Amino acid sequence: MNSREYKKDCIIFDDSYEGYSAKNFTLPEIYEKHISTILIPGGMVRSRLERMSIDILDDYEKSGVQSVYVICILKGGFKFASEIWKTLQSIHLRVKIT
Fold it and tell me: Per its UniProt record, what PANTHER family does this chain match (predicted)?
């Protein structure tokens, strides 16, 4: 998938996006009075990580690459790098098994 296709299919939250009401979600009691909206639900983040991982593996497979390395260079990026790595491994194993 080239960069134009990615831009066409990306998820965009414009400046007027207010998120989802926190009343639609289960929150720990300690946070209930402090959180009024949820900008991006966890399920949406997980789904997007899985889609990104599938795209990454497809692109590398088409290029003939045998190994993928994840290197985190941003101080606050460890959680994302860790999650994308777990998702890449999970999808790779599922594809190998089937």
Answer: HYPOXANTHINE PHOSPHORIBOSYLTRANSFERASE, HYPOXANTHINE-GUANINE PHOSPHORIBOSYLTRANSFERASE
